[in-house]
Design brief:
With 400 residues, this protein is mainly α. The chain is built from 16 helices and 5 strands. The protein has a 3-stranded mixed beta sheet, with helices on both faces. The protein is globular.
Length: 400
């Protein structure tokens, strides 16, 4: 190694150390608003472990080897429960942070970007179901802080959405889905519990509730496609935040968890983030038509939240009327409808040879959103006919 390379390595290490210190400072400011990881870990670990083992033991498995695989994963998780390897990370989130960091770093390296472009990631309960990027004073390494509830929300929704996607075959090395609206609606009608879970999770997001209470559903996630969809959405969210740094949008330290978003910058970060997340998934042999589902599903879910808010607010909710109403931009962000449409145009122009496969994906997500709004309207109508106690009981039963 040359002296110049060694000096650059030392400088890079120093910058990453400064970025990690900045991340910890942000986490220390946020955690006292709720409970610190130390307070959470002070809960009776033995009681938690016994409850979780009972819950998972009562789940249904389609194959015998799935029970053992899930049991092994559970025991690994419980081992981590007693202490986090990353300081302010909770058991479970530290593993997610490590996985996302590794994939984003690999994608950035494949583009030939420098070490300082690679972010330092962390999680906290910020009270905002979102992720934010921050500049570090005197340092080129960006920091991305992900709200824990956002990870829970993505996990819940993708695990349930996968049950609503009727498969119709395999194209090369990946599954293809039916784009027929009637097929997706039939799938939804045959899984009313899933429709209710998705609706309640989206309502929880809309009112700023805590989705973590629904994380331990007996419907154990043994579906590989659910993990693929979760990874795609999580990677898109993180890649979007990293792209704010790559595009030069971070001009200050942002220590107060506030950011002066500009809509054009959001669209730039969407396009760059999609490119980065697709590359990250391609490096794991994921084809582009599946990789684009990260951005597609994220904005589909945000659209669903907007539609459910309108259904709840309407005296006579009609799902078709709600779907026909455009969603307005906010002062800081374009609407999820316009962001999804722009990302589609970007992908079509950059991958014309994949046009047919991409259109199938887009038709599927359009049909999925339409079916989910119909299911949400039915769930909202059911909850409206109940008193408060019955509504809470219904919400609990959906997850039991």
């Amino acid at each position: 190694m040359t002296e110049q390379a060694a000096a650059q390595g030392r400088e890079g290490d120093a910058e990453r150390t400064a970025a990690r210190a900045h991340l910890i400072a942000l986490q220390r400011r946020v955690w006292p608003l709720t409970r610190t990881p130390r307070e959470l870990q002070a809960l009776d670990s033995a009681e938690i472990a016994a409850s979780m083992r009972k819950l998972y033991a009562g789940a249904n498995y389609s194959r015998a080897d799935q029970r053992q695989a899930v049991t092994d994963d559970l025991e690994t998780f419980l081992d981590r429960l007693g202490g986090s390897e990353l300081g302010y990370e909770l058991a479970g989130t530290d593993e997610i942070v490590e996985r996302l960091s590794r994939r984003i770093d690999d994608a950035l390296e494949s583009f030939g970007l420098s070490e300082t472009a690679r972010p330092v990631l962390g999680t906290a309960r910020t009270g905002q179901v979102s992720a934010r990027s921050f500049a570090v004073p005197g340092c080129a390494v960006p920091v991305v802080l992900i709200d824990v509830d956002l990870l829970c929300w993505i996990h819940i929704l993708t695990s349930n959405l996968v049950e609503l996607l009727p498969r119709d075959g395999v194209n090369a090395d990946y599954t293809t889905f039916s784009t027929d609206t009637d097929s997706i609606e039939r799938q939804l009608r045959s899984h009313p519990d899933v429709a209710a879970r998705v609706t309640i999770a989206a309502m929880t997001y809309a009112i700023g509730g805590d989705p973590a209470v629904t994380m331990l559903s007996p419907a154990v996630d043994t579906e590989p496609l659910a993990s693929i969809l979760r990874d795609a959405v999580e990677l898109f969210v993180v890649a979007h935040e990293v792209s704010h740094s790559l595009c030069g949008h971070l001009t200050g330290p942002g220590v107060d968890l506030e950011f002066d978003f500009i809509r054009d910058q959001e669209l730039q970060a969407d396009a760059k983030g999609l490119e980065l997340s697709i590359r990250a998934l391609q490096l794991t042999a994921m084809p582009v038509p599946i990789a684009v589902l990260g951005g597609e599903l994220f904005f589909v879910l945000l659209e669903l939240v907007e539609h459910i808010v309108r259904l709840v607010a309407s005296d006579d909710p009609d799902p078709h009327t709600v779907m026909a109403m455009p969603i307005s931009d906010t002062e800081s962000h374009p609407s999820p409808q316009s962001r999804r449409a722009i990302l589609r145009d970007v992908t079509r122009r950059s991958a014309p040879s994949l046009a047919a496969d991409l259109e199938r994906v887009y038709a599927t997500t359009d049909a999925l959103l339409a079916a989910l709004v119909l299911g949400a309207a039915a769930t909202v109508s059911t909850i409206r006919t109940m008193n408060a106690d019955d509504a809470r009981r219904h919400s609990r039963e959906v997850w039991s």
